[in-house]
Amino acid sequence: MIKIGIVGGTGYTGVELLRLLAQHPEAELTAITSRKEAGMPVADLFPNLRGRVKLAFSDPAQAPLSQCDVVFFATPNGVAMTQTRALLDAGVKVIDLAADFRIKDIAMWEKWYGMAHACPDLVAEAVYGLPEINRDRIRGARLIANPGCYPTAVQLGFLPLIEAGVVDTDHLIADAKSGVSGAGRKAEVHTLLAEAGDNFKAYGVAGHRHWPEIRQGLSQLAGRVVGLTFVPHLTPMIRGIHATLYARLTQEVDLQVLYENRYRNEPFVDVLPAGAHPETRSVRAANVCRIAVHRPQGGDTVVVLSVIDNLVKGAAGQAIQNMNILFGLPERLGLDQVPLLP
Ligand SMILES: NC(=O)C1=CN([C@@H]2O[C@H](COP(=O)(O)OP(=O)(O)OC[C@H]3O[C@@H](n4cnc5c(N)ncnc54)[C@H](OP(=O)(O)O)[C@@H]3O)[C@@H](O)[C@H]2O)C=CC1
Ligand SMILES: CC(=O)N[C@@H](CCC(=O)OP(=O)(O)O)C(=O)O
Question: So where's the catalytic machinery, residue-wise (predicted)?
């Protein structure tokens, strides 16, 4: 059994880790932290976990994290970077769901995240945990930077086109929509029902911190710096991301065959039949990205539709997929949930 610690067990990604790990046959939940709820049984706060998780929250300073095999950080940006070195020194593997280790260019990270980085050397060591690109490097890693939610949907959508070199990478466009759980569980006015319900808006058009992350990943695939416009939107749903991606084709290719071949052996990417329109509810509560590729009017613009559940393939599910790879377990272990309809 793998002894597991979770720092930040009261947020939405924390409770999603708990839901999935409670059903994972090799997971032994050992420590779950919260500063505000220390001492409270986990199932008192999250009734969906009654009878499934017996632990109580503990204060991060007292939790037996160094006795775990792996610690997940489901905390705001800037927390994991202050605690990761001590855990790695104690032989614990670390998977950070926040952005502390995602961006290799430290000056770029500091600009977008508005703080000084505490451990640039560990950023250099960290492996970006998108298994569809980095599976072999994840296997031998101690420290995983779990990708952001929008970056997962956008990179998986563009990946086959860029790897194959069949689009103009100077003018990529990603138009993405997220449910409000993407903003976390903390109280904020813009996610109140009366603000976000029956409403739809773009945000961060001038610049969003997922832009450098997506650009870094796509540039590595392209072998050159790509040009990317990324526009996120907030939609009145709870879970889900829908990314609509646009690129200009530079050569003739059978797009459907390209996508089906690239993802044929990927357990968590589903390429839909030609002409399909994936729905966010078709991936709700499941660790899957569904993709459809279109070429409207047979022109030279390719349109890719990519959907994920932001809390699962966009966060906790992908983190557990990375854990399975790190510990040599079957990649699908504990992650075979069927999506929830309606
Ligand atoms: N929501 C989403 O869809 C996605 C989120 N992420 C990332 O995952 C991380 C967690 O997100 P989410 O679950 O939404 O966040 P929440 O705001 O819902 O939860 C944050 C958690 O961190 C704990 N926490 C806050 N500050 C500290 C601290 N200084 N030390 C220890 N624990 C702390 C909180 O508990 P307490 O204050 O009681 O200690 C709480 O349990 C974020 O970095 C987010 O950007 C990534 C992908 C998708
Ligand atoms: C709807 C909403 O607010 N989404 C969040 C998504 C970011 C997130 O969760 O952060 P990381 O993936 O970088 O960890 C946002 O735009 O800030």
Answer: 149
31-41 confidence digits (pLDDT tens): 999 999 999 99
Please tell me the distance between residue 70's alpha carbon and the centre of ligand 2 in angstroms: 24
Residue 198 C-beta-side C-alpha neighbours within 13 Å: 2
Contact 289, 152 (CB under 8 A): yes
User: What domains are there in the chain, each with its CATH number?
Assistant: 2-125 (3.40.50.720), 150-310 (3.30.360.10)
Joined tokens for residue 319: 């983190």
Q: Which atom of ligand 1 is nearest to the CA of 14?
A: 13
pTM above 0.95, yes or no: yes
Which tokens hold the place of 56?
Answer: 């109580």
Q: Is it true that the peptide bond before 342 is cis, omega within 30 degrees of 0?
A: yes
**Which atom of ligand 2 is found nearest the CA of 310?**
9
For 48-77, what is each residue's pLDDT tens digit? Answer: 999 999 999 999 999 999 999 999 999 999
Retrieve residue 238's tokens.
């709870």
Cα dihedral 336, 180, 104, 223, rounded to 10, equals 70
Residues 202-261 pLDDT 10s: 999 999 999 999 999 999 999 999 999 999 999 999 999 999 999 999 999 999 999 999
Residue 119: predicted pLDDT: 98
Q: How far apart are CA 37 and CA 157, in angstroms?
A: 39
